[in-house]
Amino acid sequence: MTDVVREAKHVEAATRWWRDAVIYQVYVRSFADGNGDGVGDLLGARSRLAYLAELGVDAVWLTPFYTSPMADFGYDVADYRDVDPIFGTLADARALIDDAHGHGMKIITDVVPNHTSDHHAWFVAALRAGPGSPERERYIFRPGRGEDGDLPPNDWESVFGGPAWTRVAGGEWYLHLFAPEQPDLNWDNPEVHAEFEAILRFWLDIGVDGFRVDVAHGMVKAAGLPDIGSPGQVEMLGTAVLPYFDQDGVHEIHRAWRRVLDSYDGERIGVAEAWAPSQERLARYVRPDELHQAFNFHFLKTPWDAEMLRRVIDESLATVVPVGAPTTWVLSNHDVRRHVTRYGDGETGLRRARAAALLMLALPGSAYVYQGEELGLPEVLDLPEEVCQDPQRLRAPGDGRDGCRVPIPWAHSEPPFGFSPPGIEATWLPVPATWGPLSVESQLGDPDSTLSLYRAALRVRREHPALGDGTLTWRDSPSGTLVFTRDGFACTVNTTGEPVELPRPGELLVASAAVTAEGEVIRLAPDSAAWWSLADA
Ligand code: NOJ
To answer: What family name appears in the similarity comment (predicted)?
Structure first.
């Protein structure tokens, strides 16, 4: 790379950093325990910033660490301007943000605007004040149906299962699209708008570089709260516009928030967690005057299949072109089964996950890495029933989300593998005894480990002028494979279970599995990917 190109890349990174940033998700509760209570916290996260900087990510997204009774592990916020004692103090948050900046990384925090905790001062006041009061106008209270009002006001179902309404003393019902401990706010009330803009400013003043907006497709409900008319609404999430999700009115809120973000220096960003029914509707969240990015869950949901991946990649890239936004790529997060397991678990799942990482990091746009995916962690499927704590699982028994939230193994000894300080054994979810070889310490010393693969790929991505923002060109390749090029760079992917031979694209940069070459022919291992520097670059 010439000095001019390198310099241009740095200037771009400093200005529109979010267009191709690699953003690492820290699920604070499960990342690192600094104070020895078996629960991850800000002190622990701060102590691991050097690890993240060396991994080579550009930004860190911290899941909610605000004051919360933890009915949904922090996505039920009781005080948006303070830190829950289990995670530390406001001073810890400030120190973490400053240290991250010192390491050259941005910090994104979560904001949860669709609902508060039932312990939030507003909800406590609403219950006390009674029907018809201004305090109840901050939430969505309604009389019930039926003779005695003992039927919910409509047929909406909670995402976590069961009716989306709970009745309170005095007879009214309140809406909660998630757990009953998460009452939905009334975004028709200007006081709610003003409060959230003030919350954004509070954290922007402290120095955060952006927000991940929880349930960014919620907030606005269709006028009159109409019935949906059928049960099984969980199945419709993300596949249809519902009277409570993806309503056009939410975009006005995002426009107002963009004005707040733009009033600060340094490109502060908003990232939509929006489960939109189509790529087109998702692109509406990232129009030039709205948020900067939206999670591309369409990519996450795509099976390990070359044709299907190519289709979703093309759609993802094409739909943001008219709005000028970057695409994002995400394979895992704290709400879904880890992709090693989704892709087949065991050795097959890991092989595919390693290849998927190289595919994702070579695509144009910004990428998200969920803590532990750089270690190749699988979903923990055999957590004993009595340790599972996810409210979704408790309300609607099934898989639940505990298995992707198991603490990170840092050092190779015995559980909890350095997640907590020495001497602490009990962590909020147990770490499998077999995870020693997956620990950071074990993998750092192994050039073939998944951690080494991520570090190598992120280093190349940072340095290679073709990677990050931009476009790609597909090249013809055998069925079950993907080959694309970007200026002076090529990515080859084999999604089949058989080795595949291809013409050698150039010099090998990084590979998820050994690539053998004979003259001008290369042989890609089953379920593998490789990056190449093109000879004519
Ligand atoms: C999405 C968050 O990622 C999830 O963890 C949470 O349960 C819901 N929003 C409700 O806030």
So the answer is: Belongs to the glycosyl hydrolase 13 family.
